[in-house]
Amino acid sequence: MGAEVVIEGLTKSFGRQTIWRDVTLTLPPGEVSVMLGPSGTGKSVFLKSMIGLLKPERGTCVINGVDIVRCSEHKLYETRKLFGVLFQDGALFGSMTLYDNVAFPLREHTKKSETEIRRIVLEKLEMTGLAGADKKLPGEISGGMRKRAGLARALVLDPEIILVDEPDSGLDPVRTTYISQLFLDVNAQSDATFLIVTHNINLARTVPDNLGMLFRKELVMFGPREVLLTSEEPVVKQFLNGRMDGPIGMSEEKDSATIAAERAMFEAGHHAGGVEEIEGIPAQMQPAPGMPTRQGAIRRKDRVMQILHTLPPAAQEGIIESLSPAEQAHYGVDPLPADIGRHSSTTLDGATAYQPSRGDL
Ligand SMILES: Nc1ncnc2c1ncn2[C@@H]1O[C@H](COP(=O)(O)OP(=O)(O)OP(=O)(O)O)[C@@H](O)[C@H]1O
Fold first, then answer.
1. Which residues form the signal peptide (predicted)?
2. Distance of CA 346 to CAs 95, 111, 140, 340, 353, Å?
């Protein structure tokens, strides 16, 4: 099973510029989580802080009892081995074949024989759909293949936590869905804990078990996907619908005069872009046929049912609807009556935004 990551009160600044403050969330073991946020809100800084490449000034990030923020260099080195990281461009060495790129961490960090390394490299290349491409150089393959090669390399040390930075950058929507499928397949096979940072709305709607969003230097929300996907919080709604209408502007945040002027323009008929409300919660992508059942998804069901009563009504309804009749009977829930479900909404302002406590997740 993947490791749990418990983050509390994390605050990161560069000089006098605060990037985000007081971020508290738990990545449940073996579940897939996505962190959304407009450009420049510090998503990449968040990933780098999780692996100890950057040092937040306050707060803790605890993995298997080790606080990454304050531990010794030796502990940090050991704990980093639990991570596999897929950077935006795959971060491959341009002069090495895919085989050597994927073999690199094994040669650097283990004493395995070349025969054993060969077995592992070919297995990971096969797992990521790159069988037969082992002799290619990164410059000879497409962006999508480079990302898959980066993932193969991230997998060779059997990580318990996989961090992915903007997997969709440079990919078309179809290739983005293919790589999303791969994440779910890898998760099914490895039970590793995933955190994917992205602004891709399709991916956010359909891939993760949990969704979070950074905005205005804070974590606006983090919780089961159904909570964000049914949220009435303006910033979350605006982002998930990709519209100009709302608090997010060209350079992150709008002032109230700009919001009012734009509102008048949209009310007068100017299209705010993006899509209109998407009703309901889209079905979550599943591992491909033939893959094992996701153990993280099974544990999540139990976990979410335990906190169900603490969630907003629309999220509760979404969760209950996603259960089969047998599961509804198992958890002792009835489908919600129509008047409290689908069309109900919970308005959350910044101060009271749903934020499950550490124990909840
Ligand atoms: N090493 C650094 N020194 C100083 N400032 C930095 C450093 N790294 C990042 N920043 C600043 O932190 C802010 C957040 O950057 P980050 O790359 O994490 O944003 P992001 O949310 O990942 O954006 P995008 O979605 O555009 O990739 C930016 O203002 C950036 O300039």
1. none
2. 54, 55, 51, 11, 10
